[in-house]
Amino acid sequence: DHSSEFIPKCRTCRRQAREQSGEGDHHEGLSSDEELTPTEVDEFQKSKDNLLEDSRKIFEDVHADFCDIRKILLKFQEWKEKFPDSYCDAYISFCLPKLLNPLIRAQLISWNPLEQNFTEMEEMPWFRAIEEFSDAENVSESK
């Protein structure tokens, strides 16, 4: 197999090229193919900032009752308590994931679990709201 001989030679060539050009910020174990240039980093940061800015505008014209997961789930909880047969016939437990998906995705746009100070998913408000709703559903079903 010649591929195993090729890889170390490429690494050696790239290392020698870095040493000759004076690039000293290479981290051993990382491929130079994976390293980003300062221009690429700037472009990525600009596109990330633009995306985050656009994401803040998604629900700006939506009434708070329809873009807040806790408020949406409270409406479904009221429906279930007042009209349990209708709630069951509508298969709401199957519909909720699809309904909440875009709201959750919008809240996760800026979430990065690789950052040092990231918020655990279980600590996010939408997660707690769904957890409380699920607990309330389990209690009412056991009755």
Question: Per DSSP, what share of the residues sits in E-state strands of 2 or more residues?
Answer: under 5%
Shape descriptor: elongated
Supply Rg: 25 Å
Whole-number mean pLDDT:
81
Instruction: Report helical residue fraction.
Output: 55-70%
Q: Uncertain spans, ≥5 residues at pLDDT below 50?
A: none
- Report the strand count: 0
For the sheet with most strands, the description reads: none
Structural class: mainly alpha
Query: Distance between the terminal alpha carbons, to the nearest Å?
Result: 67 Å
Number of helices: 6
The arrangement of helices and strands along the chain is: HHHHHH
Q: How many separate domains make up the residues? A: 2
Q: How would you summarize this macromolecular structure in one to three sentences?
A:
The chain has 143 residues and is mostly helical. It has helices at 3-21, 38-57, 69-82, 84-89, 92-108, 125-142. Helix 3 (69-82) packs parallel to helix 6 (125-142).
Give an overview in words.
The longest helix has 20 residues. The protein folds into 2 domains: 46 residues, no CATH class; 81 residues, no CATH class. By secondary structure, the protein is mainly alpha-helical. The model has no long low-confidence stretch (mean pLDDT 81).
